[in-house]
Amino acid sequence: MNDAPPVNPRDPNFISRCNAPLRADLEADYDALTRQLERRGLKIEPVMRAVAEFRVAIPSWGVGTGGTRFARFPGPGEPRNVFDKLEDCAVIHALSGATPTVSLHLPWDQAEPKALTERARELGLGFDAVNSNTFQDQRGQALSYKFGSLTHTDPAVREQAVAHNIGCIRVGEALGSKALTLWIADGANFPGQQHLARAFERYLESAAQIYAALPADWHLLIEHKMYEPAFYATVIQDWGSSLMAAETLGDRAVCLVDLGHHAPHVNIEMIVARLIRAGRLGGFHFNDSKYGDDDLDAGSIDPYRLFLIFNELVDAEWRRASELRPANMLDQSHNVTDPIESLISSAIELQRAYAQALLVDRAQLADYQQRNDVLMAAQALKRAFTTDVTPILARGRLERGAAIDPIGAYRASAYRKQCAKLRPVGEGSRSGIV
Ligand code: LRH
Ligand code: MN
Predict the structure, then answer these.
(1) What is the whole-number distance in angstroms between the Cα of residue 295 and the centre of ligand 1?
(2) Which string of DSSP letters, residue by residue, matches 271-296?
(3) In b/e form, how buried is each residue of 41-53, taking b as 16+ CB within 10 angstroms?
(4) Is the pLDDT of residue 1 over 50?
(5) Cα of 258 from ligand 2 centre, angstroms
(6) Which residues are 219's β-sheet partners?
(7) 132 in ligand 1 pocket by Cβ < 6 Å?
(8) What is the DSSP string of 197-263?
(9) Which of 223, 224, 257, 261 to mutate to test the pocket of ligand 1 (most atoms within 8 A of CB)?
(10) Whole-number mean pLDDT of the chain?
(11) Full-prediction pTM beyond 0.90?
């Protein structure tokens, strides 16, 4: 931590002061990469342009220190409320240039929509999908979600859960959101506890009421998850259940893929390819994991898997396979890092995977695949993945007024130290993910 007087990391003058000593090296690296790609018959500019357009939403619940069921160790300067969270999200966007929207979680982020939109506008932010929450009981809540929400056997509980989701849509409308992310924890811990078919029918019946309440230009993002908190069966357990529900509910019901919601070794890029074919790939919750829903930083454990997912997205674009533009969001839990640093670097890792996927010579790959030249086909992907696209990402940030070295700039600003002074410690909970 430096002892320089605290500065506002969103101040463009501060950012350009940080960039000044780094520009010459960046130019040299960018020119070298330009020549390297030219030798490979590839143009750097279109990649730079495409990556510069790439945007990913920040999860409001990701800017506070996360935890597990065992413990949560709050860091200094924790956000105390949604307005502190917006402040932190604005710092992430100012330095990364890639995260202009925030995905709120209700009722965790409940506040006057007018106050939220005003503060967001001042901070240069907008709102992405809103997330409902029927996986916890709120203080004063009439009926418990212990045995489910949209699929509970008691119609009164289902009605309560439907009403909450419709309430989230109304708040989202006031915020300018265009989608509701619907993840429910409903499921069973023991065989026999729940009728697998009837529970799914109850889901469809409840979700149809939520779908009916969607404004005409909204999407319903259905998020599947293999397990947790249910440990035997989850009603929307996999992409098949999610796709079946989407196709039953209507055209604007689409599937959201949270990378951590699959068993280890599941081929997620294959699921992405299938959902694209079905015209139902609605969005992502990007993160990384080694075992379960670890919610680790995107690209931190298996960057090749992340690349392969973007490879499917770029290939679909190249084949004009689908009109649908998936909503990109991060969904991570930062238990041991500064959440702002993790979210900045995660947004950049997504851009890295996208840029690398744009460097795949698709005509050449298609030829190798057609002639079953397996090794050259595999190498065509690896060559793109092993290209260091850092100069493209940094140049893109520079051109958007963001930081060439965003983590360096963030640390130079001593923003966390400032927050530690302004935000007293200890108002957050002791265990749990947020
Ligand atoms: C469920 C989930 C869902 C959010 C929650 C915070 O595991 O991925 O997207 O509601 O995390
Ligand atoms: Mn998620």
Answers:
(1) 9
(2) HHHHHHHTT-EEEEEE-B-SSSS--B
(3) ebebeebbebbbe
(4) no
(5) 5
(6) 179
(7) no
(8) HHHHHHHHHHHHHHHHTS-TT-EEEEE--SSSS-SSEETT-SHHHHHHHHHHH-TTEEEEEETTSS-
(9) 223
(10) 96
(11) yes
Predicted confidence at residue 148, as pLDDT, reads 98
- Mean pLDDT within 323-335: 94
Q: Which of 131, 135, 255 to mutate to test the pocket of ligand 1 (most atoms within 8 A of CB)?
A: 131
Extended strands (E) in 35-160: 58-59, 101-103, 126-127, 130-131
Q: How far is the CA of 182 from the centre of ligand 1 (A)?
A: 9
What separation in Å is there between the alpha carbon of 183 and the centre of ligand 1? Answer: 7
Evaluate the omega torsion of the peptide bond into residue 79 and state whether it is cis, within 30 degrees of 0. Answer: no
Please report which ligand is nearest the Cα atom of 286: 2
Residue 2 has pLDDT above 70, yes or no: no
Residue 97: what residue type?
G
Q: How many CB atoms lie within 10 A of CB 322?
A: 17
Q: Is 331 in the pocket of ligand 1 (CB under 6 A)?
A: yes
How far CA 359 is from CA of 173, 270, 401, in Å, comes to: 38, 20, 25
Q: How many Å apart are CA 350 and CA 356, to the nearest integer? A: 10
Q: Which amino acid is at 130?
A: V
- Report the distance separating Cα 83 and Cα 305, nearest Å: 35
Which residues, listed in sequence order, are joined to residue 281 by a DSSP beta bridge? 255
Please indicate whether residue 258, judged by its CB atom, sits closer than 6 Å to ligand 1: yes
Q: What pLDDT is stored for residue 433 in this prediction?
A: 55
Residue of 195, 185, 193, 291 lying closest to 230 (CA atoms):
185
The H or E element that residue 328 is part of is: strand 327-330
Sign for the pseudo-dihedral over CA of 319, 220, 147, 241: negative
User: How far apart, in whole angstroms, are the C-alpha atoms of residue 291 and residue 8?
Assistant: 38
What angle in degrees, to the nearest 10, is found between the helix axes of 303-318 and 268-277?
20
**In this structure, which ligand is nearest to the CA of 106?**
1
Tell me the residue length of the chain: 434
Q: Using a 6 Å cutoff on CB, does residue 285 contact ligand 1? A: yes
Q: What is the tens place of the pLDDT at every residue in 366-389? A: 999 999 999 999 999 999 999 999
Distance 14 CA to ligand 2 centre (A): 34
What pLDDT, in 10s, does the model give residues 282-307? 999 999 999 999 999 999 999 999 99
- The alpha-carbon radius of gyration of the chain (Å, integer) is 22
Residue 320 and residue 274: Cα distance in Å, rounded?
15
